[in-house]
Amino acid sequence: MGPEYSNTRHNAGFMVLDALAKASNIAFADARYGFVAQLKFKGRIFVLLKPSTYMNLSGKAVNYWLQKESIPLENLLVVVDDIALPLGTVRLRPQGSDGGHNGLKNINEVLGTQDYARLRFGIGNGFSRGRQVDYVLGEWSEEEMKVLPERVALAGEAVLSFGTVGIERAMNLYNNR
User: Fold this and answer.
1) Would you state the pLDDT for residue 4?
2) Is 101 among the catalytic positions?
3) Among 9, 10, 101, 151, which one carries the catalytic annotation?
4) Could you give all domains of the chain from N- to C-terminal order, each with its CATH number?
5) Are 3 and 35 contacting, i.e. CB atoms less than 8 angstroms apart?
């Protein structure tokens, strides 16, 4: 996503990855189809990808980096915003539909499967009928900004948990917090 979207609700997934990188003193590098960073944690290497394609065309970037880094599908975790969840809610799932999220829809199409894990980060649904796009692409309110750091950090912990203890245990640890 471009800089004009950096402080928007649609950028929640990037916020989680940026927080992980900052906490680990690593930086993203401009690479093919995105910005990439490698995070080492508990003997594992996490490849963090922020696609530079349009969010709704993320599948190309995800597929490229899965192939380039020889990452098996079961090790893929996609972090996305979700209007169906209250602000800051973290929901891990081992697979599932796109739930109306165009980024997930494109990843599903390019990968040819829905069988990969995803972390949905709740952005709430404080919009009136017909205003969904404006809400999702809108900037966080001051009130939302107050709770985001703690919730984004929790989502980052969930990402690391997924990579170290697996999806089932990570779901048990983070889905109700």
Assistant:
1) 58
2) no
3) 10
4) 3-174 (3.40.50.1470)
5) no
